[in-house]
Structures are given as C-alpha cells and as structure tokens.
Design a protein that fits this description.
The protein has a two-stranded antiparallel ribbon with strand order 1-8. It has a two-stranded antiparallel sheet with strand order 2-3. The protein is mostly helical. The protein has four domains: about 80 residues; about 45 residues, no CATH class; about 200 residues, no CATH class; about 60 residues. The longest helix has 22 residues.
Length: about 450
C-alpha cells in the first residue's frame, strides 16, 4: 500500500522541494498525512520519530523511499487501525468528561459516513467548534447531505432489519420452483430501495411499517402479481392494501424468516419481539429439540406449531413469539399471498402481549397498524440507532440519554431522520466515563 501511495504522492501532498528542500517537505508530509491517518495532530514526539524513520528510509535511496517508510509505519500504527480515545481530563468529582474535539470529529464521521473526518470536520476540531449541541447539530445536518450518509443509513437498515438474510434463504425446489437466487436478489433490491426512499423521503416510521406501496422492477412486480415497470429499474409501485403494508409484508422479510418447506411463526414473531420491540427472547433450555415440526400437507402450520403451547419448557417463550407470527400466515414460505394452508383456510388470528398496544390482531396489516402507533416500537427504533451509533448495547447509565433521544424522536412525529442528530448531541455520544465508556 505504501509503495502504491508514493506513486501518486502528488494527489496526497504537494510540496515545492526547491523552496524548502526534501527534509522540509518530509516534515510537512508527516504533519499533514499523520493528522489524517491518526485523525488528530501528531504529538511532537511522534513527529520526531516519524522524521527519523523518513531519514532512515531516505539514506542510500530517494525522497520517495523515505516517505514510503513513513506511510508504511503510520498505516501499521494502532492509532490508525483503531480509534483510541483519551478524552479531556474530568473535573474533580466528575464521573464523565467530554471527548476531545478530534475524538468528536472521528465519532461523527464514522457514525454518519463510516469513514474518517473531512477537511471541514478537522477545521471544526481545530477551532474547538464541536463542543456544543448546536455546533454538532450543524455538522450532522451538513454531513447528512453527503452521499456517504446514504450508504451508512443503508448499512444500518440492512443490519437492523436483517435484509441480506433473504439472499441466503433456502427453499424446497419442488414446493417453490419459482424461488431462485435471482429472485432473492431482486427482492433484496426492492426492500433496500424502499428503505432508502422512505428514510430520505418523508422519513416517517409509520410509512416504513404501513406503506401500501413498494419499489418494484419487472421481476418484483411479477412476484406480487401487479402491473409494474418493465426492466430492472425499481419504481414506486402500488400494492393491494388488503395484502401488503410496509416492510414486514415484503418478500425479503417473509422469505428470510421462514423455513425451506413451510412458514415459521416462531422466526417471524421473534423478529418482531427483538427487532421492533427490543425485547429479548431467552435461548431454549438445554436438551430441548428446536427443529420445527415436519411439514405435513394434511394439516396447517398453526396446528403443527401450536404444540409448543402444550410443552411446559417451551410455552413461556413461544407464547411470546408464535401468536405474533401467526398474523403472517397469509404469506407462504417465499412470502407470496395465500388463502389456504393445506386443507384449511388460513387463520391469521394472533395476539400482542407485553406491549403498550396489547390485544388481538387478525393478519399482518392489522399488526402493522398496531405497531406503527406503539410508543414502545418507536423507542426501540431509537435504541437500535443508539446501538449502531455507539457500537455497543445500552447500559443503566444510558437511561437518561435514551429517554431524551426517545422524546426528541416523538417530538419529530417519528421522523427517523431526527435520530442521528438526537444521538450525536446526546451525553452518551459527546462524553466518556473515566473507565473509557460513554456515560
């Protein structure tokens, strides 16, 4: 990498050797490149050490040989590979202190862009202009206009909503002959485009969960059985509002949260509990067989899976998942609409418990309507963003921060675009504790 870099040194750094000499240019390069590599200015000791490395590499060779050694050593440094933080010294009696301006610039850049700070962030850090919520807000608003923010938003949703799981969803070929890796890829593209358009469109959580439309290409339109665009381009396409509402009624989610030969109320219900309600389902007890009941064309999925409720060791967990999952029974293993399950009409009656919108639900449409009004779901979305931004799960010390983020999200009418600002201006993001964590 270092050899490749010196071949295009002019794009990294320009210096007039005739004016200040090779050693002067080397010192300037160490200062400029070192600041970008370490995402902070080098200490005087570091600058001296790297100049000594340059001198060693330059001896018996050329200027670029010395620079190559400097680049190689900087890119092997833990200060480049990792993101260590020392923080500002805490005041007497304080349990937390602000991160340094350069640490704040780095936190922001990797949260919003997934990459290092740009010149504007470095300039703000140089000026100490990342200290207040207003200053941070201005930077986040600026950064959200950059295409790199779109990439990070896509990454968040891909991880949170498990979108890529559809790409590996195996299906029984004799039962679902139309399922293919190409169809899975098209459905993944559909959901990815849908999330992108919703977030950067109205940004509303209810739209994500309830929209009666999607973004389809020809293959996806055929999958849903609707008139849609020709070709590979994803275009906004209306769906049957009695059959589809939002992301969890799209093929990506439904196919990836189902078994190869039958649906899975367990996996679909577990997803809602854990990803939308932030409730943890404990692992099954030791010794319990967790394979799904075998497919039987003479009975229904509900009848096969309801047996979970008769086993004492299974009941406590499955009564949290299966009654939610049953609401998705109109969608088969590949996510296509059905009215019959084996010999019987589909039964989509289910129940929500342990939430702020408890009660019976009949079908996924009704379930989505309930969930979109849930404060608990909105708070969970805020929590999922918090985890993503901070690279960790929340702790008891984060309770006040999370309440503030949740309140800001609610005040924005559940506009998901408000969450990056709420998180970046929070105490957990701007401060660190004496043991290295955020407060």
């Amino acid at each position: 990498m270092a050899i490749s870099a010196v071949t295009r040194l002019g794009s990294l750094y320009a210096c007039n050797v005739a004016t200040i000499g090779e050693d002067g240019c080397a010192q300037q390069f160490i200062t400029i490149f070192g600041k970008r590599a370490f995402r902070r200015p080098l200490t005087s000791a570091e600058a001296t050490r790297f100049f000594a490395l340059y001198t060693t590499g330059r001896t018996g060779g050329q200027f670029t040989d010395g620079i190559s050694v400097v680049i190689e050593m900087m890119l092997q440094s833990p200060y480049f590979i990792y993101r260590p933080e020392s923080g500002v010294a805490a005041q007497a009696g304080a349990t937390a202190a602000p991160v340094t301006p350069y640490e704040m610039a780095t936190r922001l850049s990797y949260f919003i862009w997934g990459s290092m700070p740009d010149d504007a962030l470095f300039a703000a850090a140089d000026a100490g202009a990342l200290a207040t919520p207003a200053q941070v807000t201005a930077q986040v608003q600026r950064m959200m206009q950059d295409s790199r923010a779109h990439q990070v938003v896509a990454t968040f949703h891909r991880e949170w909503l498990e979108l890529a799981s559809a790409l590996d969803a195996a299906k029984a070929p004799t039962m679902f002959p139309n399922w293919s890796p190409q169809l899975a890829s098209n459905l993944y593209g559909e959901s990815s485009t849908f999330v992108e358009q919703v977030f950067w469109g109205d940004g509303n959580l209810a739209t994500l969960l309830e929209a009666p439309y999607t973004y389809a290409n020809q293959a996806v339109a055929q999958y849903y059985g609707v008139t849609g665009p020709a070709g590979a381009t994803y275009t906004k396409t209306m769906l049957d509002p009695t059959q589809r509402a939002g992301l969890l009624t799209q093929g990506t989610f439904l196919a990836s949260h189902a078994n190869p030969d039958q649906t899975s109320p367990v996996r679909r219900g577990k997803f809602v509990r854990e990803q939308l309600l932030c409730q943890t389902i404990p692992p099954p007890p030791n010794g319990i067989v967790i394979t799904p009941p075998p497919y039987d064309a003479t009975t229904t999925t509900r009848n096969r899976f309801v047996a979970h409720e008769t086993v004492a060791l299974c009941k406590s967990c499955h009564t949290q998942m299966d009654p939610i999952g049953f609401a998705f029974e109109h969608y088969d293993s590949v996510g296509q609409w059905r009215t019959m399950d084996g010999p019987s009409a589909v039964d989509t009656s289910g129940t929500l418990t342990g939430t702020d919108v408890d009660g019976p639900v009949d079908g996924a449409i009704a379930l989505m309507r309930k969930l979109s009004t849930s404060t608990q779901v909105a708070n969970c979305v805020a929590t999922q963003w918090f985890r993503f931004a901070n690279g960790r799960t929340e702790t008891d010390a984060d309770k006040c921060t999370l309440v503030s983020i949740e309140q800001q999200f609610t005040s924005s009418h559940k506009d998901m675009r408000a969450l990056p600002i709420a998180i970046a201006t929070s105490d957990a993001f701007r401060y660190r504790t004496s043991n290295g964590g955020s407060p």
